[in-house]
Specification:
The protein has 191 residues and is an alpha/beta fold. It has a single domain, classed as Flavodoxin domain (Rossmann fold), CATH 3.40.50. Helix content is 34%, strand content 20%. The protein has a five-stranded parallel beta sheet with strand order 2-1-3-4-5, with helices on both faces. The longest helix has 15 residues.
Length: 191
């Protein structure tokens, strides 16, 4: 089983990264191969709306550090996206990647019964850490992105979310959420 983990936080010791590490370490112990990309360390740009992926190519025309990431995700069984919540949204690092996944859609995706270029059956794990403690705030972030990734053919989308973590690695003492990360990995990898 191939897992690609995308760290959307600029802080590699931050809360979303800690949860991603907990998930990925458990998955590796269960036999999965994990490849991790720290998006903040890569050089890339967002979607340029050039439409080359809909007219000339079956992939994104931009050749930068996201080229390898997009290909790795296409080949993976599981995608892990970990992000802090900034201004009620995913980090800009993760958002730029998500925008570039537009290239996963076929040219006639709006009307096509098979809108995705990806093989079906993939799974997505969305890890969201937010400083604000009220769970009612920013609860719309995961459902919004899960909808898009289901469109790409991701059959199961799982969310691991923690609220009220402000300082880097506050989540390290949150056994409830760390356990959820381990249990999610056990559930998915053992299939």
């Amino acid at each position: 089983m191939e897992i690609v983990c995308l760290l959307g936080s600029p802080r590699l010791n931050g809360n979303s990264c800690t949860l991603a590490k907990e998930f990925c370490d458990t998955a590796q112990r269960l036999g999965a191969d994990v490849r991790t990309f720290a998006l903040n360390k890569l050089q890339y740009q967002g979607c340029q709306a050039c439409m080359a992926c809909k007219t000339k190519l079956d992939h994104c025309i931009i050749n930068d550090d996201l080229t390898e990431v997009l290909q790795s995700v296409a080949e993976a069984d599981i995608l892990v996206m970990a992000t802090p919540t900034y201004y009620g949204e995913v980090s800009s690092q993760l958002k730029a990647f998500i925008d570039r996944t537009y290239s996963y859609l076929v040219p006639d995706f709006i009307d096509s019964p098979n809108p995705s270029r990806l093989l079906p059956g993939k799974q997505m794990v969305f890890i969201q850490a937010q400083g604000y403690p009220d769970e009612n705030y920013y609860s719309d972030v995961f459902p919004k992105y899960a909808k898009f990734f289901r469109w790409y053919g991701f059959e199961d989308c799982h969310c691991i979310r923690v609220c009220g973590v402000n300082k880097p690695n506050d989540v390290a003492i949150r056994e409830d959420v760390l356990s959820q990360a381990r249990q999610t990995a056990q559930k998915i990898v053992k299939r």
